[in-house]
Specification:
The protein is mainly beta. Helix content is 14%, strand content 40%.
């Protein structure tokens, strides 16, 4: 009798379950990022400006629609440079090209893309593994879809309450 009940129950359960919303996320280990990145720094965001750039985020969709993003440039002051070259004159800075969602509600959907949320002026520091792009700016090592895996906010115990 058990086998006659299990089959139909399993069939019903599978029929009403949602299709998995999983998407592949590429996360590299520190060794790979450190060896292959063009620039590895600890830096503090000082200014973000929104660009006129609007595009689809590469490689992901939501409800079979492209995810629209707006281009940003964030200028960072570098505290420590572990790898790469920075200008020798003045304050050492690096410009990071990244995106924000055009529709902020998409940040709350299951398995949402993990974009950077930076707050210039709050003294936060980030460990950043970056690739140089043709125009001289940098982008996150693992690309624009989930940049949080190559630009990590550091915990600073001196700043804690």
């Amino acid at each position: 009798m058990r086998s006659t009940v299990v089959g139909p129950v399993l069939s019903i359960a599978l029929a009403i379950c949602n299709v998995s919303m999983a998407r592949p996320v590429q996360v590299f280990d520190y060794d790979k990022m450190a060896s292959e990145a063009d620039l590895v720094v600890i830096a503090t965001p000082v200014e973000t400006k929104e660009l006129d750039e609007k595009t689809d985020l590469p490689g992901v969709r939501w409800n079979n629609q492209p995810i629209r993003v707006v281009g940003l440039e964030t200028r960072f002051e570098v505290s420590v440079c572990f790898k790469g070259k920075l200008p020798a004159e003045g304050k050492l800075t690096v410009v990071l090209h990244h995106y924000r969602l055009e529709n902020p509600e998409l940040a709350e959907v299951p398995n949402a893309v993990q974009l950077l949320r930076l707050t210039p002026g709050d003294s936060s520091q980030y460990l950043m593994f970056l690739k140089r792009v043709d125009d001289g700016r940098y982008e996150p090592f693992n690309g624009q879809t989930d940049p949080v895996y190559s630009v990590e906010k550091l915990r600073n115990p001196r700043m804690a309450d």
